[in-house]
Design goal:
- This protein is an alpha+beta fold.
- Helix content is about 45%, strand content about 20%.
- The protein contains 19 helices and 22 strands.
- The strands form four sheets. Strands 11, 12, 13, 14, 15, 16 and 17 form a seven-stranded mixed beta sheet that branches. It has a five-stranded antiparallel beta sheet with strand order 2-1-5-4-3.
- The C terminus is likely disordered.
Length: about 650
């Protein structure tokens, strides 16, 4: 009897099972995992290929008949579990297996590879051992731990408080110095702590000042962080320390807070600021003192020089004339000292500002030399000028300071050349594309000379040469020092060459610019008109001696003078009478010259345009600016000379703008 059975379905299922098994094996191979299945007693049921190779273990441990205990014994004997007793290790691992407890462990094999072992159990008690190499992951973890340790060590020794905040505003890392610097609980800065709590603590403590609504202030601070921009804030804590807080956002949404104790720096800056304020107050006091000294010295000097000059020009016997001349000369010498002191003090305080305008070099050299030629002490000297034809007719620079430098050099020559010649030379180097010219002026004398080694010393403050007869010369030794300061201010150089008995050569060289022409302030016909027509002039002056000097000078010039003893009377007189010019002293009782000028201008009509010339013992730039701002048309410094007064009066005719 033949029994036929259709096993097609069975075969189909076997093929499908084989395919699934093959797929599972392939998947396991790809994942790199090795799987071993044991029965509930620990006997090996199955495993995939290369498991022994993965563990570097004998193949017999993964063949039928092998047990889980055999594998544990081998690994313990090899030292994979560390320094343990082998039988005890086998007993403990088998006990865990029978209790069906999941287990996971890492072992480093002799070749350095790290194998992760995981045991789990099926419902029927069978055990599943999964082996996977995790060497790369462990290496990365170890590197991460090492880097974290290095980072933490760096943070702990950086000298600044550091707190790293994540995008969720939680603390990721930091160092203990942050809590110490802020005098805050350390728990606020531990990993996992919230940034909100740190800020809230500081608000409630008063670090951010008096805050009424803590939560609103907290919201404002958090909104500041959301802008993702770096910022810095300096706050002084209750204990007096100044802490700098800096925030730098990170690309992932978090940020880094850095805290630093800047108390010493802040206190130093505060001391510097206080010192600067004191220096500024001292400088202001110095300026006020200089203004006071200038006024108090120039006011009597105006009477001394003015009256002695009038006496000298009068019909005096020879002896009295010599006495008047001696008084005038002494006054002029004292005036030079006063000017030197004030100019040097102004330079020393950094208050000197260059006044650049077109000027005629030839006229400047000729006029300055001519003034020095008429000094009594220069009577036995012959003066010459030599201006190179190549020097441009008109240059642009600070003519007043250039003239002052030249006066100082000529005065130096006069003091040390009792007889002989003094020559002023002027040269100019070729202009560049921008019109810049190097103007070279020198003063050569045939005087006593000096050792060349002394040349540098002579430009230092209060340094003086001896005269030809080895006696001390008048002055404070500030003329050359002031000249050097002026030259330095203009970006030039100054120097001297000499030998004893061979005369000397003092020179300076400064950058100037070429200019087209000098705009004339008046025409010759209008000057002539001023010279030929008597003017009715109001003189506002509170000191009787100065009124006498001014009245005599105006009378000699052919003009009529009327006087006012203070600013109030000057305003009254100006309103009642029609004056051609008003000479206004600046410092007067009750109403000063500035106030009087503004009041006169405010009356309008003809008084809005009547020429007013300031006459003042104050001669600093600020005084001139104040006079011009008040509406004055000119400025005369005391002591006033008749020639200067005459020039000032003539300059007003034909002027269309005030003259500072």
């Amino acid at each position: 009897m033949v029994i036929r059975t259709d096993i097609t379905e069975i075969k189909r299922r076997e093929v499908a099972l084989a395919q699934k098994t093959e797929l599972v094996d392939a998947t396991l191979e790809i994942t790199g995992e090795r799987i071993v299945v044991y029965d509930p007693d620990g006997n090996l049921l199955a495993c995939n290929d290369h498991t022994a190779q993965r563990l570097e273990a004998p193949v017999a441990l993964f063949e039928p008949g092998a047990t889980f205990g055999d594998l544990v014994r081998f690994l313990a004997t090899r030292g994979d579990y560390g320094d343990v007793e082998v039988d005890q290790a086998v007993e403990e691992r088998m006990a865990e297996f029978r209790r069906r407890r999941p287990w996971r462990g890492l072992r480093r094999q002799p070749d350095g590879r790290v194998i992760e072992s995981r045991i789990s159990h099926f419902a029927d008690g069978r055990g599943l051992l999964v082996l996977r190499e995790v060497t790369d992951r462990i290496v990365r973890d170890e590197q991460l731990v090492e880097k974290s340790a290095v980072l933490q060590a760096t943070l702990d020794n950086i000298g600044e408080g550091v707190v790293v905040i994540g995008a969720n505003r939680e603390v990721l890392a930091g160092n203990g110095l942050a809590a110490k610097l802020l005098d805050a609980p350390a728990a606020l800065f531990e990993p996992g702590a919230k940034l909100d709590d740190i800020i809230r603590f500081r608000i409630e403590r008063g670090d951010l000042g008096a805050v009424v609504d803590v939560e609103a202030c907290l919201g404002e601070r958090l909104a500041l962080l959301s802008k993702r921009s770096p910022w810095s804030l300096d706050l002084r804590l209750r204990d007096g320390r100044m802490i700098e807080s800096r925030y730098n956002p990170m690309p992932d949404g978090g940020g880094v807070f850095i805290y630093r104790d800047i108390t010493e720096r802040a206190d130093h800056e505060a001391r510097l600021a206080d010192a600067l304020r004191k220096a500024e107050r001292a400088s202001q006091a110095k300026s006020e003192f200089l203004a006071m000294v200038s006024h108090e010295l120039r006011t009597p000097m105006n009477a001394i020089i003015g009256l002695s000059g009038l006496l000298r020009e009068g019909n005096l016997p020879p002896t009295e004339r010599r006495h008047a001349t001696a008084v005038e000369t002494a006054g002029e010498s004292l005036l030079v000292i006063i000017k030197d002191l004030l100019e040097f003090a102004g330079l020393d305080a950094g208050k000197t500002v260059l006044d650049t305008a077109p000027f005629d070099v030839r006229a400047l050299v000729a006029a300055t030399t001519d003034v020095m030629r008429h000094l009594p002490q220069a009577a036995r000297l012959s003066f010459h000028t030599d201006v190179d034809p190549a020097v441009p007719a008109t240059l642009e620079g600070d003519a007043g300071r250039i003239r002052r430098i030249l006066v100082n050099l000529l005065d130096n020559a006069v003091k040390h050349a009792p007889s002989g010649t003094v020559t002023v030379k002027a040269r100019a180097k070729t202009a560049d594309a921008a019109g810049k010219v190097m103007l070279h002026i020198e003063v050569v004398d045939t005087g006593t000379g000096f050792p060349q080694t002394d040349a540098r010393r002579l430009f230092q403050p209060f340094e003086r040469r001896s005269s030809a007869d080895r006696t001390s010369v008048p002055g404070l030794g500030l003329g050359l020092a002031t000249s050097k300061r002026f030259v330095d201010l203009m970006g030039g150089t100054i120097g001297a060459e000499s030998e004893p008995g061979s005369g000397s050569r003092f020179w300076f060289e400064i950058p100037v610019r070429t200019a087209t022409s000098i705009q004339p302030g008046e025409t010759a016909s209008k000057r002539d008109a001023a010279e030929n027509r008597p003017l009715k002039i109001l003189v506002a002056e509170d000191i009787e001696a100065n009124r006498a000097v001014m009245g005599a000078m105006l009378e000699r010039l052919g003009h009529e003078a009327q006087f006012a003893e203070d600013g109030a009377k000057a305003i009254e007189a100006a309103a009642k009478h029609d004056f051609d010019v008003i000479l206004m002293d600046i410092q007067m009782p009750h109403v000063n010259g500035i106030e009087a000028t503004r009041a006169i201008r405010g009356l309008g009509g003809r008084l809005a345009a009547v020429p007013i010339i300031a006459v003042s013992a104050h001669s600093l730039p600020f005084d001139r600016d104040s006079a011009q701002s008040a509406g004055m048309n000119g400025f005369l410094s005391k002591p006033v000379r008749r020639s200067g007064l005459n020039d000032a009066l003539k300059s007003l005719f034909g002027m269309t703008t005030p003259v500072g």
